[in-house]
């Protein structure tokens, strides 16, 4: 006869797993999209927690004597889930930074759209890169890696076993900011070079033919050249995604290492 007993301690342990998973789903890229229904995110969190609970053995370290101590444990699990999801979500902002610089160079900086991940206004080129990155995340199965990384954190960081090392986490963020600028400028380097050459040509023409309004001509040429470069460099998007996904894996590893 199969025993389906489920004690109060098991329920408390399951709730701690659910808190970490739910916080991760709330902040992780692709799953935190605004157009994702809340019921879908709740369902993903609940059923993923059930699978993880079946694979994990309730840890003996989850002991407490008062409700306040259990609340502290819940908050620790919530912070762990938020930091893991935030470390992955930060990397997707690289394409928004690149899109903002590209639109500033082409004269489209006043055209803004809603970013599906950060829920903030972003440039039109940044939104284009963002949706392309989300599409590649689905097609390459990167979302499976995120859930696999989340499952591995329960082995590296057991429930109520997180130790927050602020120095390590701060160093990870500082290192990311350096890579953030480098990768962002590498993405828009073709546009930047093309607009730089165009500005040089317009400067020469302004001296040769001062009667021509180069300001009005230059605005239209910049938009035309910028959109053309974006069109011809669309094939670079898989390479951009590789850079971003690689940075995402490194950030998750460094953040998890800072909580072990």
TrEMBL record:
Pfam families membership: Bac_export_1 (PF01311)
Topology term for the membrane: Multi-pass membrane protein
GO terms, biological process: protein targeting
Keywords of the record: Cell membrane, Cell projection, Cilium, Flagellum, Membrane, Transmembrane, Transmembrane helix
Keyword Membrane among record annotations: yes
Transmembrane annotation, as ranges: 12-32, 44-67, 79-101, 145-163, 183-209, 221-241
GO cellular component terms, semicolon-separated: plasma membrane
Compartments, record wording: Cell membrane
Main location: membrane
Signal peptide range in chain numbering: none
Family stated for the protein in its record: Belongs to the FliR/MopE/SpaR family.
Stated name of the protein: Flagellar biosynthesis protein FliR
Organism: Acetatifactor muris
